[in-house]
Amino acid sequence: MFSIEEVKKSFLVSIWFMFLTFPIMVIRVNTIYKIVEWRWERMFYIGIGTFVISFIWRYLMRRKEMGVKKKEVGEDALPLAQRLLQNRRVSYPAIALVAVLALIYPFVFSLYQANIMITALIYVVIALGLNIVVGLAGLLDLGYVAFYAVGAYAYALLNYHFGLSFWVVLPIGAAIGALFGIILGFPVLRLRGDYLAIVTLGFGEIIRLILENWNEFSFGPSGIANIPRPSFFGIDLSLAETTRFVYFIMIGLTIFTIFVVNRLENSRIGRAWIALREDEVACQAMGIDKTKTKLTAFALGATWAGMGGVVFAAQTTFINPASFTIWESVIILCCVVLGGMGSIIGVILGALVIKLLPEYLREFSQYRMLLFGAILVIMMVFRPGGIITSVRRTYQFKGKSNRHA
Predict the structure, then answer these.
(1) What angle do CA 241, 233, 223 make, to 5 degrees?
(2) What is the mean pLDDT of residues 283-306?
(3) pTM for the full model?
C-alpha cells in the first residue's frame, strides 16, 4: 500500500512544479488590450497532473526495486514476455495471427499506410543487422547509416550508368555493404567503447560528405531521381500494385533476415560474438580469433544495411545525402536499444515502435516529439534491458543415472 510519506513527497513535487511554471502557465499579457490575464484554472490542472504523475512514478519505481530483489533471490528468472514466447500455446497462435495481418495489410489499409509499413520493415531489417554489431558483438557503431547509404547509391548509380535492375543490384548492394564493413573493421580492431563510437561516427560522416561533394560521381546535393521500382517479370504495374509488391518483398526479406540472424546467433560465430561482448580479454584467452570475429560482425551487419538501402532507393525513387545523416544512425541504434540488445523479437518491436509511433501521433503534432521522448525516457528507466530483454542461453548437462538391478 501507499505510505503517507509517498503522498507527502508527491504533494511537495506538485507544489514545487506549480511554483516553477506559474509565470508561464498562469500569467498572460494581452498586448492588444494592454491587460494582464490570470489563468488560475491552469495552475489547478498542473498541480493535479503533477501529483498523479509523481505518484505513479514512485509506484513504478517501487515495483522495479521489488523486481530487482526477486531476481537476486532467484524468483521469476524469466520475464513474462520470454515465458509467453516459449509457451507454444501462445506463440504459435500469435505467429499465425501476425502472418494473417501481414498478408491482408496492404489490401485493407491505404497506400499511405502501406508505404509507412514498408519504411518500418526496412528499419526492422537494418536494425537486425545493427543488432549483430551492437547487440551480439558489443561493438558500438554510430556510423551504421554509411552502409545504408552505400546500398542505396549502389542501386541508383548502377541503374543510371549500366541499367541494372533491382533484382540484380540487391545481392550486389549486400556484397558492397559487406566490403565497406570490412574496410571499416580493419582500422578499429584495437578500439573499444567511446573511441570505437567516435571513429565509426567519423566514418559515417566521411561517406556522407563524399556523396554530398563529389558531384561527378554521386550528383552531389541534388541527388538521383527517377530510380525504377522493382519489376515483376517485366509486367507493368500501377503505383498501388508496385507498392504492394515492394511491401511483400520487404515481408520476405524480413523473414529471411530473422531466420539468418537467429541461426547466426545460435551458431559458433554467434557464441564467439557473445563472448567478445562479455569480456574481450577472456574471449581472446579462450582461443577465439578476435580479428576474425570483429570483422565478421562488421561485414554481416553491413550486409543487411546494404540490402535495406537498395530497397529504400527503389521505394522512394529518389535519394540524396540528406537522407543519410547521423540522426538516421541514432534512430537505428534506438531501435536496437529500445527493443532489447541481442533480442530479435525485441529489436523488431523496437523498430516498429520507433517508426510507427511518430506517424500515428501526428494528431498531436505540437507535442508528439515530447510524448515520444517521454516514452523513451520511461522505457530506459523502467525497462533498461529493452521491451524484450535478451535472456542468456544456458546449457545443462544431465548425465545418465546409474541403475543397478
Answers:
(1) 65
(2) 89
(3) 0.81
